[in-house]
């Protein structure tokens, strides 16, 4: 595991710790510069906030999920199968 200032990177797993952020009065956070550079987050990008009550929050670029969402929507293009007769 390598350390670079506040950033911690597990070389084999592509996982990072970019440090901590403080939530402002309006609920805003600043994404650390290293994180923005690593994940190519630029001003104007749209991010999605996902959450799990037991595991916490994740922030991801929306374009990464667009392909998955489009694939999921394709299920509506196919007629549903009839249930088997009993």
Report how far the terminal alpha carbons are from each other: 57 Å
Shape: elongated
Total count of strands? 5
Low-confidence stretches: 1-5
Number of helices: 2
Strand content: 25-35%
Quickly describe the structure.
The chain has 86 residues and is an alpha+beta fold. Helices cover 21% and strands 26% of the residues. It has two helices and five strands, in the order E-E-E-H-E-E-H.
Give your account of this protein's structure.
0% of the residues are buried. The protein has helices at 33-38, 62-73, and strands at residues 2-4, 7-10, 15-17, 47-52, 56-61. It is α+β, with helices and mostly antiparallel strands. 21% of the residues lie in helices and 26% in strands. The chain is built from two helices and five strands. A three-stranded antiparallel beta sheet has the order 1-2-3, with no helix packed on it. Strands 4-5 form a two-stranded antiparallel sheet. The radius of gyration is 19 Å and the shape is elongated. Strand 1 and strand 2 form a beta hairpin.
Explain the layout of strands and helices.
Blueprint: E1 2-4, E2 7-10, E3 15-17, H1 33-38, E4 47-52, E5 56-61, H2 62-73
Antiparallel strand pairs: 1-2, 2-3, 4-5
Key phrases:
86 residues, alpha+beta, two-stranded antiparallel sheet, 5 strands, 21% helix, elongated, disordered N terminus
């Amino acid at each position: 595991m390598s350390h670079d200032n506040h950033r911690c990177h597990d070389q084999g797993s592509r996982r990072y710790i970019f440090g901590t952020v403080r939530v402002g009065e309006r609920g805003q956070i600043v994404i650390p510069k290293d994180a923005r550079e690593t994940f190519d987050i630029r001003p104007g990008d749209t991010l999605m906030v996902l959450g799990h009550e037991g595991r916490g929050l994740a922030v991801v670029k929306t374009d990464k999920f667009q392909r998955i969402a489009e694939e999921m929507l394709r299920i509506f293009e196919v007629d549903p199968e009839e249930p088997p007769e009993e």
